[in-house]
Write the structure tokens for this entry.
Amino acid sequence: MLMRESIVMKIHYGTALGAVFLTVIHIMMRMTQDFHESLEYENVLANYEMIGYAILLELLLILISVHGFNGLRVILLEIRQGATYEKGVTYGCIAAMAILIAYGTRTILMANMGMV
Amino acid sequence: MRTTNPKISEEKSETIVSSTKSIKLRIKRSNPEVNSEERFDDFIVPIEKWTTVLDALLDAKSHLDHSIGIRYSCRQASCGSCGMKINGKPSLACFTKISDLDSDTITVEPMDNFPIVRDLAVNFTRMFNNHKKVMPYVIRDDSEITSDSGVKETLQTPEDVEKYIQFSSCIKCGLCNSACPTMAMDTSFIGPQALAQAYRYIADNRDEGKKNRLKVIDESHGIWRCHAAGSCSQVCPKGVDPAMGIQMLRSYLLGIRD
């Protein structure tokens, strides 16, 4: 066991609340201009180039990845049991979460630095 | 010479011939030790308005088929032996009157989420093991028996007792575990019965074992796997509310309560 389940679940609930809060800000940002206009390629890239917005997206990525992959771990642990399986699921979810965060961070950084 | 009171004789005769109704009892039969076959056997049994499902089952066992496998003991909802699924709902057979079911066909099946021993009798080993795991007794360093004067009392106020008294009514019948959707999926889940008992002792102000009990339930197949469906509380024949106990335990673990 990596950490006590209550700590994992505190992180789970905390990331859910944080993700909802940041998603509300993210959606409200669409209201600064016409909705369709806000989704145009140039405007989306411009969002990434704002350092504050890039940090918001990075935080959103981390919160949703942690919450989502822990949720997946919980579902998989309920479907089947067994020491090897459970260890595989736990480490598999951590690895998948790390890969997703790394890939997402790369995208955010590249867009922020004008590399796309 | 004794004369017979016509009123008394009339009452007696009424009592004797009062059984006028019958119901169909459908019993799920299986014996995993022999084969994996499962079937329903139907029995027509006479009932009175006070007949319980257990009475009907014992009637069928006595007069129609001695091989019906059933576990029972006290017949008064105290021992927790005769839990089964009656018309789809986990219930105590001795505590369910047929007249209350409002049906001419009563289907009885073994409880879900327990391995079947035979017919309606299920194996309680997993539930009792989980029950033992939560240390269902008052833990404290001192004792009520002292070396000098003999005994001392650990006094409690009515408010102290109120905090846990409903949870001490648990008769370990397993109906809550049978109704629990998580128990159906997760074979390692500790279950609402054990969790309710963990709360019963943690809420008892004489107890000092809170830290150890929280450690037991705070693992990957412990309290966090409960989905708060609340079916455990719906089926408890003793009015225990395991779902509430689970939420209280969670509040301890989340640091909302001390």
The domain at 5-112 of chain A is CATH 1.20.1300.10 (3 helical TM bundles of succinate and fumarate reductases). The two ends of chain A are 41 Å apart (CA to CA).
